[in-house]
């Protein structure tokens, strides 16, 4: 299993919208994430900054599985309205890399 950290940023003034929309994700998206190998996905927000921690069997495979998934495509379109930089699924590498951990 992989643990992946991600960072995204909300458009200014969209914080409440993001919180409201993420209060409950669609059941189809939940099922798609689990089928793609996601065990856990947690998101913290500090102002407009979003920090994700994803536990997944294989991050690249998960991204490939979800790129055109009918449950994920409309969700990503909705997120694109909220995020400063939308995720176009062009890259499979997370932008945040581990530099230290407490042994």
UniProtKB/TrEMBL annotation:
InterPro entries found in the cross-reference section: Dimeric_a/b-barrel, Rham/fucose_mutarotase
Protein's name in the database: L-rhamnose mutarotase
Organism classification: Bacteria, Bacillati, Actinomycetota, Actinomycetes, Pseudonocardiales
């Amino acid at each position: 299993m992989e643990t992946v950290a991600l960072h995204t940023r909300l458009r200014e003034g969209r914080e409440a919208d993001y919180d409201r929309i993420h209060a409950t994700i669609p059941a189809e998206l939940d099922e798609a994430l689990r089928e793609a190998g996601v065990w856990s996905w947690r998101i913290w927000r500090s102002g407009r900054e979003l920090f994700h921690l994803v536990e997944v069997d294989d991050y690249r495979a998960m991204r490939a599985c979800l790129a055109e998934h009918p449950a994920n495509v409309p969700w990503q379109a909705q997120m694109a309205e909220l995020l400063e930089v939308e995720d176009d699924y062009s890259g499979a590498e997370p932008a945040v890399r581990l530099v230290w951990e407490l042994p």
